[in-house]
Amino acid sequence: MLDYSGAILMDAASLIAMILSYHDIREPGKADPAKPVAARLWQRVCSVCALLIIVGVVLGGLNGIDDEWPFAPFRMFAYKPQNTGTVTAVAFRGVTSVGETKLLTDSDFNLRRAEFEGQLPKIVSNPRMLASLVSIYNKKHPGRDRLVRLELLKSGWNVVDRKPKERIEDTIALWPPNNEPGE
Amino acid sequence: MRKTFSEHWQRYWFAPVPPERLEVLGLIIYAFIIGNIALSGWINAHAWAPKNMYRPVLLGRLLGIPGPNAFTMIAVVSMIVIACCYSIWRRNGRVAPKLVLFGYGLWLLWAFSYGKVDHDRLTILVALGVLAFRPGQHADYGRRAGYASWALRLIQVVFAITYPLSAWGKIHFGGIDWANGNVFVTAILRKGTVFGNLFLSVPWLLVIAQWVFISFEVFALALLLPRGKLRSVALVGVIVLHVTTYALIGIHFLPHLICIGAFFPLERLSSRYRSRSGLRARRALGDGVSTLPEKAGAAS
After folding, report:
1. Mutate which of B6, B43, B53 to disrupt the A interface (most A C-beta within 10 Å)?
2. Interface residue B15 vs chain A (CB under 8 A)
């Protein structure tokens, strides 16, 4: 944010300078009769607005972070490639009050998978957050058997030389913890 | 005679275009937003998401914006839809377009405050911004035509620079060797469609696709040109790129892609423009139709 506040200040200064120099184009002989004076002022304001927006987008795109939205970087497919390693995504497995185990989806909790992945350290360090997910699920599906246990998984593939080889799955958070009774 | 920078600037940003072009784009965008809101259940669902997952972005923290609840979400969504309908119905409304800008901005801010920011909404936000401040019908034709030119150019420029900036993001976050990696394999494994999964057995093809993808993103700077074949090729390329991405991993980027309308002579869809240009044509043939006051600005 601070990186481009200087540029924004410069643009603001140039806007002020433009407005201050406004009298120049009213001098006799200098004004273009085809362009009324008022027209020139709005064009200058528009020009400065365009510059501010473009500078914000470019600086956010070059060196910004997601937190600075709307001037955030464009991170479509922008991550470190690993030709050999693991490719995983968050998944959910629940156990109902009648002992049925089922795979759940992100929309069961009114959130997106990427939103869980974006806050994974916070959830893993505080598995109690899963309790609120259980409660959201039970409120959202009153007709179904109640959820009493929720497991957050990392599920995916082992990739060797860009080819998926075998499936992998790892529990990263669990509620309630193994030695506590469910909801 | 050599033109000065300011003449080039003036021509690039303010050479008059028919104001109906911006007007028709506005209609398309407002109609799109109604559909976008109706189909973006995941954003509206945030009102019922766990409160402890709300993590506002910087702008939300600076403005002290609380997370959505059922009441505020329904209120904001209703306001956007009503203001969009009004903007479509009364095309010279002054307040409604500003309400759409404010409401949609807030709606997006909520959307991106749960740990994931999407990168396909900036252009439409800029489009809503320029639509919100366009001069009304009472303004003289020259000003409306000049403003339409500036507004459409700004949408075009923001639309265009997202591509090279996206290429930069790949290098910046993924490293110089991005195109030789397995990024598309990863994307297909995580979100692949039936069509996309077919490519998992031919990873070398996906490496070629990565090179083509990032090269095209740099080439898309040609969209900044005011006209010409290179720009047309880039426009077709953009459509091919987004259709391919949708086919492979089901991500459509529609809120961004809809703004491609800023590159086309949409005024031809406007009955008001057609009747006005018909009038001009008859006048040119000398059939006695009186001169219109907007004659001077009706170029392009």
Report:
1. B53
2. no
